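WARN no homologs supplied; continuing
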Amino acid sequence: MKNEGDVIVIDVRCVPPDFHSRYKAQERTYFYRLLSGPELLSSFEKDRAWHVPEDLDLLAMQKACSVLVGHHDFSSFRAAGCQVVHHLLDDANSPIRTLDELCVSEVPPTPYFPSIAGQGFGIRRRHRCFVVTARARSFLYHQVGPR
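OK structure emitted
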């Protein structure tokens, strides 16, 4: 594995030969790691988390997440090139999606968020660490997920 911890397999099952993981998935869950703090990320942290130099307000983010959970038109969240036509009977082309879970929580630093609290030469300031979880049966193109 290139970066330990990037992908974790939690279950394996036999499926029919015509099974397609993209089109027959029952749900998808994405986890995003955020590091908040003015100090630049170390080379170990770079590309493993989104760095936000400003101090993040956890309660405000949690409140915003709760507004987006549920059945909504997510047209403004899709990629600019995603010009789908809205058909009420064609779920794949509709911008209407049901977001089952969207939450953010603060987590303690781990080896995946290496940082040391303290002052002095060679000692890094501690970043605040957050995990954003998004779960739904399907998402619009670039609504969430790798870019």
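Helices lie at 58-68.
OK
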